Amino acid sequence: MIVPYGDVLLLAIILFLLGAVCSISRRNLLMILIGVEIMLNAAGLAFVAASLKWSLLDGQAFVLFIFAVAASEVAVGLALIVYSQRRTGSLNADRYDSMKG
Amino acid sequence: MTLYAVIFYVLAVVILASTLLAIIQRQVIHAVVYLIVSFFATGLLFYLLGAPFLAALEVIIYAGAIMVLFLFIVMTVRAESGEDKGEIYHWLPAVVLAIISFFVGGVLIFKIPGSKMSLNTGMASPATFGQFLFKNYWFPVEIASFLLLIGLVGALYLGRQESKKESEDRR
Predict the structure, then answer these.
(1) Which one has a higher pLDDT value, B136 or A88?
(2) What are the chain A neighbours of B82 within 8 Å (beta carbons)?
(3) Domain limits, chain B
(4) Is A85 part of a structural domain of the chain?
(5) CATH number, position A77
(6) Which of A49, B53, B117, B140 minimizes the number of CB atoms within 10 Å of its CB?
């Protein structure tokens, strides 16, 4: 007996929303990417708890794929950040307004 | 309340506190160091929930590889250019939306049947997990490896030094 399943889901929800708030409200490109990482981590936590609740290994298999996606996403994302920083000289998302959108 | 429950709540408090501290940091490098604590505690939580292999992967990939990659990039790019002032109107809409969806999600969780039942302890050994993975999910594993290869090639392509001819072509 560990804890109710709802408690784990509640923790995952709070973690996901913290990542979403970070991703929405920060203007630094690196902090936006960090928020995405927090959200992926929270999704993995919910998957592991569901895998334990129904004692099926499929949830853990999905977490492995989430890890693969997070690793490749952060590699490409950081390369994009370095590239755009080299081209515009700024990491602030508000300064990327050359299209005047 | 069992010992497992105490461990769970302690880990939950550590995760939430370090993540909250991470997202309100002005400097990215402090946020990354707080997130390493958060991911390490999440790895322990994975172990508690019966996934020792994923706990090891969480520490190696998230707390190790991804956060070290962030640290390298933070040290490479100029840090002062991305500074934001942290005005209230940046935070307010996001926080209000997050609180609304938190309450909706909480009501939803505690209304569905079975959410009050305690989880039993269980453990999937890495050998069992590996056999399950390669028996049922061999094709997604191949796709994931292909995705990692594409990510590697994409990062190399984006990160290469631009030669002089290409930059003249662009003008």
Answers:
(1) B136
(2) 27-30, 90-92
(3) 1-79, 125-160
(4) yes
(5) 1.10.287.3510
(6) B117
Per the structure, the complete domain to which residue A81 belongs is given by 27-89
How much is the mean pLDDT over chain B? 86
Structural class in CATH, domain B1-79:
mainly alpha
Count Cβ atoms below 10 Å from residue A69 Cβ, excluding itself.
15
CA-to-CA distance for A22 and A32, rounded, in angstroms?
7
Residues of chain B with C-beta less than 8 angstroms from the C-beta of A6: 109-110, 115-116
Quick check: A57 and B83 CB within 8 A? no
Report chain A residues whose CB lies below 8 A from the CB of B17.
none
CB A31 within 8 A of CB B31: yes
Please enumerate in sequence order all residues whose Cβ is within 8 A of that of B73, keeping only pairs 6 or more positions apart, or say none: A30, A78, A81, A82
Greatest distance between any 2 Cα atoms in chain A: 57
Inter-chain contact A8–B51, Cβ cutoff 8 Å? Answer: no
Structural contact between residues B69 and B32, judged by C-beta atoms closer than 8 angstroms = no
Q: Is residue A37 part of a domain?
A: yes
A73 within some domain: yes
Per-residue pLDDT of A54-85, as tens digits, reads 888 999 999 999 999 999 999 999 999 988 88
Q: Contact at 8 Å (CB) between B51 and A51?
A: yes
pTM, full prediction? 0.88
